[in-house]
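call fold(seq) -> tokens
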Amino acid sequence: MKDFLQAIQFTDAKLLQEIEHFANIKHLQKDNVLIHVGDSILFIPIVLKGSIRIIRENEDGSEVFLYHLYPGQTCAMSITCCQVLQKSMIKAIAEDDLTLAMIPVEQTADWQKYPEWKAYVNRNYQERFAELLHVIDLIAFNHMDKQLLHYLKERCKALHTTHLEITHQEIAIELHTQREAISRLLRTMEQKGYVKLGRNMITILD
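ret:
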């Protein structure tokens, strides 16, 4: 629970007491899936250590990367699904080794009486909405090279590194495009000095 207090920094003694009583601590290894599309949401996940990669996946398995969740953050989409009794519309993957506080959904409705919890939920809505708008802007108003560079930088940021072990096919899947297009863009980005390419390795230079 110490990790929770450091990540969230709530001060309301009664709220903290309820969190300590109801939260379940969960550990996931890198690349494990926390939530699949279509899952019933029974817990609200709050990141304590590590990060979560949020992916939008449609019925035929096509994927689009949305954003990351970092310590102290939760998934606003999970909260929304809980409120309207809707199944998950996203896939959540452990970007690296992950520690979570899992809050039972039935408990979160009662916590709206705490101003700190209500402010926390509203702040997460605002932050995730801003991130979604940024992704939409990248897709709608920019060329794929900017979307690709954003994706690479976000993955490196989440892993606290400049070296990303990943295949061109894996990138293509999460950016919903063809592997050949990703390979061509990466070669162009290498020529411009943005990245350095290796075998299943991409290093961010800029």
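The first strand starts at residue 24 and ends at 28.
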